[in-house]
Amino acid sequence: MSDENNRELEPRFYRAVGATGPQSEKAFPALARRREKNTEDKFADSQEIAKKVENFYKGTSPNQVITEQLTQNKERVSFSERVSWLQPPLPAKTAALLILVVPLIIGLIDVLLTGRIGIITSFAYSITLLYLAATINMRNAWDPVIAGPVAYLIVALILGQLTLSPTGSFMLKQTAMILTTLAFNAPWMVGSTAIAFAIVFLRIRRSV
After folding, report:
1. Model confidence over 39-64: pLDDT tens digits?
2. What domain range is 17 assigned to?
3. How far is CA 147 from the centre of its chain?
């Protein structure tokens, strides 16, 4: 076979996986070199990924990275622990605190803005009462329904002192203030208490 024919056949044998004959000695090394090239390409890709990771954490030691992760996890846990008393099911003490504090704070703003205990205070009371009725633990399920109106009366007595005139009989002023406050806000107080009763009743019925 002439040299020209060898040159023509060599590429074919080099590309043939099952090459045999005299050309197989050259064919298999060629295939091996191709596989070595693929391995080098994969290694180059790995180096590129490693370089990107190194650049991302450049100037940060492994201990520092671990410390930052532990700090973040600790902050999440500590935050969850701080607000755990606000997460349902709520204990009775938390419910009692909320039904007094929330209407009292909102009611103070209401009195300062309008000069009386009005719709803003009643709305805050209603929302708080319904939230407690839906989230308090089942052992104290009826507490919001019973304690809600009592808490509203306490809030009215405290904030009502800011609405009294400086003249007149003390008992007469207190009585007039309580009666007018309860009469004006009766729809809110009675309505929210009735809805809270229904919520508690349904919760108890479903739990049985």
Report:
1. 555 556 666 776 766 666 565 555 55
2. 3-59
3. 30
